[in-house]
């Protein structure tokens, strides 16, 4: 019992309680809410973001950040559309788009891991750069009319009610949990996030781990871009613009420390579910998309602020209690100036 | 020679000087590429654009110096421009000074919210301002009902404000808005260099733990930085309104990235403690000149702007880390060698037991 | 000013402790780690308010709720790691916390005043240069200048000499004596007994957050003080047992690294402890890092276990059997928020992986439990974060981590810095045991008795150069110090 309470007091516990509250509220609002179909629909609208969030979790636990993911999603989608429009077969276009993601991620990785530059600055630069390249490819055109099979990839269900994107997310989630919590690589990621120097002095190949993470981040972002193109059926230079903030919000709300070192995949999963259900619930109440984003922004701040205030209140309460206690009698061994 | 160089220039100043040369180099290059490049109109346009970015960049510099970041500036600019614009639509008789004061006050209030959460609520700046970026924008969209502020509904003085020119030399205008921005840059550079508050901004960013141990009012310093950043963004919001007139709810969206880019290119260290406002201004200038020039350069598509801008930021950061770091070490080492030499002399005199 | 009396009574870290300081005295405070010294400092400087008890200055109770209040009362502290601001100039660092009436900085006056204070201290430093790149000693001088500028009345020195060279320690003591004459009360905290006995007027001992004794120095003996600190006798603090010297394990010839060290030449035999002695700035740690491949050397030959090698990465060093335990436990040695198990297995994590990179948690934990047993690491479980352990136990976790690599050569960099006397003795016993098992050990230590007691041979370095090698028979404090100072 004590362990259960301990567990609930943790970040995950807090998210879980919030999540249950939101689901209960939504179910009360709408009778079809708890259907499998609705569950899938819930995911479908943000599926690319949450796939990318899985890798972002690793990057942030590693003590870095990748602001360029959304631009990479856009660049990959634009590359795909550009090649297809230029008469290349779709399959080749997909492969090249994914390859661009790998290269772009490795480019970030090079500057962060090998050159040792701050990732905030590097990925801010590539955020602008990748988006710029996407615009160079498509200029101000919008490209659609992809082959039917490609559009189906994004929209049709594959197994039961599940789309391909959802299945990729599900598999990706399992892989992410295993890699982060049960493999040597995941251990290295956390060690480096806690202390790069200790890792280096322990023979961990820090640049290599970071290089792998950034390459993976680029690759998965490109995959997200391709899936997004398939779901939307059309691509523009501004596709996926601003997604990075949503993705980072998901990860941070999941209890991953912005300073690196701590965080769990379970927390991120709860955060994903919470955000999706919350958005859906607000949708049921006819709250606009913009206001929903605002509410999630507030939730992000509160999720850090409330525990901070609580711990400070507890501390000051303890101090006051101590101050009110009667002073102890003078002790003989005291040496004083009197 | 090396010694005199070291006495007169600190690495930071060399960096700013190199930005000036880079800007001149860019101007010279494009003047050979684009006919009629160096026209007064071109410079007037750059000055008007940079004025807005520069004012926000001042605030961002103050915040980044303390080892924080404010991602919400774009939203603050948008909110201020929109709210002041809406208010002026219905109140044509409002005195211009009061309108500016109103903009600054709105910005300061939003900055205060950031500051309270970060400095006193101990929520990391990147989380807080990521949140308020969304919240401020959402509030704007909700309150406005997605309506647009139109220039025609503005009072006459505001419509004319962007063109108000105090003096003009050979077609180069000294415009009021540009002058305001320049005044702000100078004032805040003086604040950084010559006031206790300014030095404390550096101290807090340079060594946060040390600041706490030394009893510096770190929270207060960070708080003030965010309030000032908000107020300056408010001022920029007013300038944005004056310059563009038609304000939609997405006004200034994404401006935070442009501003941070300018500040980083200008040599303000992303981890605090280093940088100047003059540097940030030079960064904003360089970026804007490149943007304006590329639009007019027929050799490559104007769509290359962002791609090149990204590369420029990366180059600036890499140069800072690789070259400036080396310069600093050179400077520091020369000092250490001096002190070591002194020590040897003393050791020689002071026979150990 | 008659005197300052303080009475604290906090629940855990400090329990009903009283201490008084008189103007013009240097009062030494001794105690093992966890005795409550740091807590006392934090209370006196207003970083943490006390839960109970009172602090009196000139017989009047004062409240110290924040560092600024402490400063206005003239209480200042100097730490082992000075808290300078690298981007501000020396002068600014000195006057940063001053509250001037004007909100503006008068640079001319600032520089002049700073120069005056440094002159008063008889120190030459350019007040206009940024503090970035100053030596530790110079940074401490800046801190002392800062304290003086604040009209300090109570100066706390927390392990100020831990990273200073002998000459710098002299300078520091000279400063302390000057301040004493001016009527400043100094609270001097140090692990180095000989310094305490040289400079202190009175000596107070804390143990486990409790006050144990306060005596004039003349009435205190080192043995007695140690007895008070640990509550038990300790015999033979530093004693290397004689071990059979085996074949040559490591042979270093003319090792050098640009701007760092050069001409390092020595051998380590199996079963031998080779001490690396020298003052701060001797670049001993850099030699250790070069041999471990963290900061590889540029020139020179290294022969290890009969084969010539070029060590360029820690992974490679570990593979051939070299381990290096860093001097900086917190920043370079251990991942503080992670568990004992995770820390011990880290360098050898590959050995605990199944196929597909999955971790064998059982085997990992078993190893950790074995080391807990073998090194008597005092912790309930091996799953607790190392941050929760005491300094001595953390040191043992770090030793376990490197022993688990099963090295043939173990480089120990300041293995007993900042740990209490009991744990120190255990570490020394461990070193003996390892040498008996045939390991070669390089012991880098600034603790002179430790190096002399534990080493079979001592390599003395000074400013990146090797000054000589002494056998145990040849080595005396005087010869080694003379060599380390370039007087040999």
Residue-averaged pLDDT of chain A: 87
CATH class of the largest domain in chain C: Alpha Beta
Number of DSSP-assigned strands of chain A: 4
Oligomer: heterotrimer
Distance between the termini of chain C: 48 Å
Structural class by sheet pairing and helices of chain C? alpha/beta
The figure for the number of domains of chain C is 2
| Number of discrete helical segments of chain C | 17
Provide the low-confidence segments of chain A as ranges: 325-338
Protein chains sharing the most extensive interface: A-B, 45 and 44 residues
Question: Would you mind describing this structure in some detail?
Answer:
- The complex is a heterotrimer of chains A (338), B (353) and C (488).
- Chain A is mostly helical.
- Chain A contains 15 helices and four strands.
- A two-stranded antiparallel sheet of chain A has the order 1-4.
- In chain A, strand 2 and strand 3 form a beta hairpin.
- In chain A, helix 13 packs parallel to helix 15.
- The longest helix of chain A has 36 residues, at 289-324.
- The model of chain A is unreliable at 325-338 (pLDDT under 50).
- With 353 residues, chain B is an all-alpha fold.
- Chain B has one domain: ABC transporter involved in vitamin B12 uptake, BtuC (Orthogonal Bundle).
- Chain B is 75% helix and 3% strand.
- Chain B has helices at 2-8, 11-33, 40-65, 73-90, 96-120, 125-144, 156-160, 176-194, 196-206, 208-213, 218-244, 255-265, 277-296, 305-349; strands at residues 165-169, 172-175.
- In chain B, strands 1-2 form a two-stranded antiparallel ribbon.
- In chain B, helix 2 runs parallel beside helix 13, helix 3 (40-65) packs antiparallel against helix 11 (218-244) and helix 4 (73-90) packs antiparallel against helix 5 (96-120).
- Chain B is globular.
- Residues 334-353 of chain B have low confidence and may be disordered.
- Chain C contains 17 helices and 20 strands.
- Chain C has helices at 37-44, 67-72, 90-95, 107-120, 136-149, 166-181, 193-199, 222-230, 284-292, 314-320, 329-333, 340-345, 361-375, 391-403, 421-436, 448-454, 477-484, and strands spanning 4-8, 17-21, 26-30, 53-57, 60-62, 75-78, 154-158, 185-189, 202-207, 210-216, 248-257, 261-269, 273-278, 299-304, 307-309, 322-325, 409-413, 440-444, 457-462, 465-471.
- Chain C has a six-stranded mixed sheet with strand order 6-7-8-3-9-10, sandwiched between helices. In chain C, strands 16-17-18-13-19-20 form a six-stranded mixed sheet, with helices on both faces. In chain C, strands 2-1-4-5 form a four-stranded antiparallel sheet, with no helix packed on it.
- In chain C, helix 14 runs parallel beside helix 15.
- The model of chain C has no long low-confidence stretch (mean pLDDT 84).
- Classes of the chains: A mainly alpha (338), B mainly alpha (353), C alpha/beta (488).
- Chains A and C meet through helix 9, helix 10, helix 11 and helix 15 of A and strand 1, strand 2, helix 10 and helix 11 of C.
């Amino acid at each position: 019992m004590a362990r259960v309470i301990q567990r609930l007091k943790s970040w995950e516990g807090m998210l879980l309680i919030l999540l249950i509250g939101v689901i209960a509220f939504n179910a009360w609002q709408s009778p079809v809410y708890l259907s499998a179909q609705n569950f899938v629909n819930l995911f479908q609208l943000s599926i690319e973001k949450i796939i990318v969030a899985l890798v972002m979790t690793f990057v942030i636990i590693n003590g870095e950040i990748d602001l360029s993911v959304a631009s990479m999603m856009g660049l990959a989608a634009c590359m795909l559309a550009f090649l297809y429009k230029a008469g290349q077969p779709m399959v080749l276009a997909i492969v090249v788009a994914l390859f661009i993601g790998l290269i772009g991620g490795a480019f970030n990785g090079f500057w962060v891991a090998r050159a040792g530059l701050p990732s905030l600055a590097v990925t801010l630069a590539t955020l602008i750069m990748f988006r710029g390249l996407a615009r160079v490819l498509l200029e101000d055109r919008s490209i659609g009319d992809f082959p039917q099979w490609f559009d189906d990839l994004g929209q049709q269900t594959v197994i039961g009610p599940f789309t391909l994107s959802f299945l990729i997310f599900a598999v990706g989630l399992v892989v992410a949990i295993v890699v982060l919590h049960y493999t040597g690589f995941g251990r290295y990621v956390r060690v480096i996030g806690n202390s790069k120097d200790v890792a280096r002095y322990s023979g961990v190949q820090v640049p290599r781990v970071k290089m792998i993470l950034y390459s993976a981040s680029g690759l998965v972002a490109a995959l997200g871009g391709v899936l997004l193109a398939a779901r939307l059926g059309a691509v523009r230079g501004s596709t996926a613009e601003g997604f990075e903030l949503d993705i980072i919000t998901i990860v941070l709300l999941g209890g991953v420390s912005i300073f690196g070192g701590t965080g769990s995949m379970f927390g991120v999963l709860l955060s994903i579910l919470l955000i999706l259900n919350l958005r859906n619930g607000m949708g049921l109440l006819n709250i606009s998309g913009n206001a929903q984003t605002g509410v999630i922004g507030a939730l992000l701040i509160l999720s850090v602020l409330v525990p901070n205030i609580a711990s400070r209140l507890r501390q000051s309460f303890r101090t006051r209690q101590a101050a009110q206690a009667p002073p102890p009698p003078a002790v003989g061994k005291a040496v004083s100036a009197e | 020679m090396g010694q005199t160089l070291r006495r007169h220039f600190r690495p930071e100043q060399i960096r700013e000087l190199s930005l000036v040369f880079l800007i001149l180099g860019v101007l010279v290059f494009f003047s050979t590429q684009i006919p009629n490049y160096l026209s007064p109109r071109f410079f007037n346009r750059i000055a008007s654009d940079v004025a807005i970015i520069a004012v926000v960049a001042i605030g961002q510099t103050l915040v980044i110096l303390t080892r924080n970041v404010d991602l919400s500036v774009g939203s603050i600019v948008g909110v201020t421009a929109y709210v002041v614009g809406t208010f002026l639509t219905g109140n044509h008789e409002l005195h211009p000074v009061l309108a500016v004061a109103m903009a600054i006050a709105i910005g300061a209030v939003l900055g205060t919210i950031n500051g309270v959460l970060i400095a006193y609520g101990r929520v990391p700046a990147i989380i807080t301002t990521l949140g308020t970026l969304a919240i401020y924008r959402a509030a704007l969209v909700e309150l406005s009902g997605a309506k647009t502020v139109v220039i025609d509904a503005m009072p006459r003085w505001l419509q004319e404000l962007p063109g108000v020119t105090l003096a003009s030399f050979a077609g180069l205008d000294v415009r009021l808005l540009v002058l305001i921005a320049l005044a702000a840059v100078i004032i805040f550079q003086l604040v950084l260099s010559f006031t206790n508050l300014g030095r404390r901004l550096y101290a807090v960013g340079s060594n946060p733990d040390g600041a706490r141990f030394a009893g510096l009012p770190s929270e207060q310093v960070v708080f003030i930085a965010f309030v000032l950043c908000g107020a300056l963004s408010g001022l920029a919001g007013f300038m944005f309104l004056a310059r563009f007139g038609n304000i939609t709810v997405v006004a200034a969206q994404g401006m935070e990235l442009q501003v941070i880019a300018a500040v980083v290119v200008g040599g303000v260290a992303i981890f605090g403690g280093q940088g100047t406002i003059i540097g940030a201004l030079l960064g904003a200038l360089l970026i804007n000149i490149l943007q304006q020039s590329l639009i007019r350069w027929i050799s490559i598509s104007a769509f290359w702007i962002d791609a090149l801008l990204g590369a420029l930021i990366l180059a600036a950061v890499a140069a800072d880390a690789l070259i400036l770091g080396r310069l600093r070490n050179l400077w520091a080492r020369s000092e250490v060698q001096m002190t070591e030499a002194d020590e040897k002399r003393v050791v020689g005199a002071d026979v150990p037991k | 000013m008659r005197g300052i009396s303080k009475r604290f009574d906090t629940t855990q870290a400090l329990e009903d402790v009283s201490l008084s300081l008189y103007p013009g005295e240097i009062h030494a405070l001794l105690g093992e780690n966890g005795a409550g010294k740091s807590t006392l400092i934090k209370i006196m400087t207003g970083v943490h308010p006390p839960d109970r008890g009172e602090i009196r200055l000139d017989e009047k109770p004062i409240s110290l709720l924040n560092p600024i209040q402490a400063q206005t009362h003239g209480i200042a502290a100097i730490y082992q790691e000075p808290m300078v601001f690298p981007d501000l100039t020396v002068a600014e660092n000195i006057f940063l916390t001053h509250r001037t009436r004007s909100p503006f900085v008068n640079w001319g006056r600032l520089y002049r005043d700073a120069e005056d204070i440094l002159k008063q201290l008889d120190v030459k430093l350019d007040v206009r240069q940024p503090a970035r790149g100053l030596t530790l000693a110079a940074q401490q001088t800046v801190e002392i200048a800062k304290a003086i500028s604040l009209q300090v009345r109570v100066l706390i020195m927390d392990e100020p000499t831990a990273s200073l060279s002998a000459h710098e320690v002299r300078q520091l003591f000279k400063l302390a004596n000057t301040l004493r004459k001016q009527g400043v009360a100094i609270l001097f905290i140090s692990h180095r007994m000989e310094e305490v006995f040289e400079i202190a007027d009175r000596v107070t001992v804390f143990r486990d957050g409790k006050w144990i004794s306060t005596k004039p120095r003349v009435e205190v003996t080192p043995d007695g003080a140690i007895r008070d600190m640990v509550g038990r006798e300790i015999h033979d603090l530093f004693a290397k047992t004689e071990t059979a010297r085996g074949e040559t394990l490591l042979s270093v010839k003319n090792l050098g690294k640009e701007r760092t060290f050069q001409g390092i030449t020595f051998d380590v035999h199996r079963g031998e402890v080779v001490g690396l002695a020298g003052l701060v700035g001797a670049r001993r740690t850099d030699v250790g890092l070069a041999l471990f491949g963290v900061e590889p050397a540029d020139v020179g030959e290294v022969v290890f276990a009969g084969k010539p090698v070029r060590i360029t990465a820690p992974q490679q060093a570990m593979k051939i059997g070299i381990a290096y335990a860093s001097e900086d436990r917190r920043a370079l040695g251990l991942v503080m928020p992670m568990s004992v198990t995770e820390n011990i297995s880290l360098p050898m994590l590959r050995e605990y992986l199944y196929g597909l990179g999955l971790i064998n948690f059982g085997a990992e934990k078993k190893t950790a439990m074995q080391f807990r047993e073998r090194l008597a690491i005092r912790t309930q479980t091996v799953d607790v974060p190392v941050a929760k352990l005491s300094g001595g136990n953390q040191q043992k976790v770090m030793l376990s981590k490197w022993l688990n690599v099963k090295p043939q050569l173990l480089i120990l960099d300041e293995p007993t810095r900042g740990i209490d006397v009991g744990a120190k003795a255990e570490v020394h016993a461990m070193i003996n045991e390892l040498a008996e098992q045939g390991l070669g050990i390089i012991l880098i230590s600034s603790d002179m008795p430790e190096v002399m007691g534990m080493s079979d041979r001592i390599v003395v370095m000074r400013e990146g150069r090797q000054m000589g090698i002494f056998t145990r028979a040849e080595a005396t404090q005087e010869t080694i110090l003379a060599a380390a100072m370039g007087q040999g």
